[in-house]
Amino acid sequence: MNLSFVWETQIHPKAHEAALEARASPELSDRLQQLERDVARHRDEAAKAQAEVDRLLEILKEMENEKNDKDKKIAELESPFRQVGIICREREKIACLAHGEKISP
C-alpha cells in the first residue's frame, strides 16, 4: 500500500480532498504550490528568528554574569573601606564620650 495514499486518505482526509481539488484545477494547483513555498519561507524565517533570539539571550546571560562578577569585585574592594569607616565612627564616639559630649545616633 502506498504510504502517501494512506496518509492522504486515512490519516489526513482534508489533505486528500485538497489534493483532489488541486489536481482538478491548475489554478488551484499553482496557488497551492505558491502557498507551500510561502509556508516554507516563513518556517525558514521563523527558524532564523528563533536562532537569533537564542543567540541574544545567551549574550544577555553572559552580560548578566559579567555584571554580577563586577558587582562582587566592587563589594570586595569596598569592604575594607567600610570597615575603616565603621572604626572611624566608633573612634569619634569614644572621643566624644571622653570629652563629655552627647553622641548623635
From TrEMBL:
Keywords: Cell projection, Coiled coil, Cytoplasm, Cytoskeleton, Phosphoprotein, Synapse. GO terms for cellular component: axon; cytoskeleton of presynaptic active zone. Its main location: cytoplasm. GO terms for biological process: neuromuscular synaptic transmission; regulation of synaptic plasticity. GO terms for molecular function: structural constituent of presynaptic active zone. Pfam families: Cast. It is found in: Cytoplasm, Cytoskeleton; Presynapse. The keyword Metal-binding does not apply. Residues 25-80 form a coiled coil. This is Uncharacterized protein.
